[in-house]
Specification:
Layout lengths: L7 H16 L11 H102 L4
Protein name: Phage holin family protein
Organism: Altererythrobacter arenosus
Keywords: Membrane, Transmembrane, Transmembrane helix
Length: 140
């Protein structure tokens, strides 16, 4: 269909739109939607965005929870193996010292050394927790 085949009113409208496009849009486009329709569309777009964001965050949280569970299990087993290694070290120390100190002497020496190390670590922990307490104490 050619332009000259259009009805006169329609051809005038096309010419008016062409003039507006050429002049750079001086005249407002009155054929568009109203302000109310724009606001409703904006609200609908906002709802769509909020729903998409909610779905994204929900899937992200599910992913993090799944990976967190896996990480917790792996950390548990890692600490279990470290604990077993330390037990093996202590048993090895008792066995290694047994020829020199007898089995009871080697056991007593290893136990005393471990208790002293535990006491030192507890004193260091107490120092750190007191520092935390002092940081949160009321200034007098």
């Amino acid at each position: 269909m050619r332009d000259d085949d259009l009805p006169d009113s329609r051809q005038d409208n096309v010419e008016d739109e062409l003039d507006v496009a050429i002049r750079g849009g001086d005249e407002p486009d009155v054929s568009g939607s109203s302000l109310t329709e724009d606001i409703v569309a904006l609200i609908d777009d906002g709802k769509t965005y909020a729903e998409a964001e909610y779905a994204f965050q929900k899937s992200r949280a599910a992913f993090a929870a799944e990976r967190g569970k896996s990480a917790a299990v792996l950390v548990f087993f890692a600490f279990s193996f470290v604990h077993l290694a330390l037990v093996a070290l202590v048993v090895g120390m008792v066995i290694a010292l047994a020829p020199s100190l007898t089995a009871w002497g080697a056991t007593a020496l290893v136990v005393v050394v471990l208790l002293i190390a535990a006491a030192i670590l507890l004193m260091m922990m107490r120092k750190h927790t007191r520092a935390i307490g002092d940081a949160f104490a009321d200034d007098r």
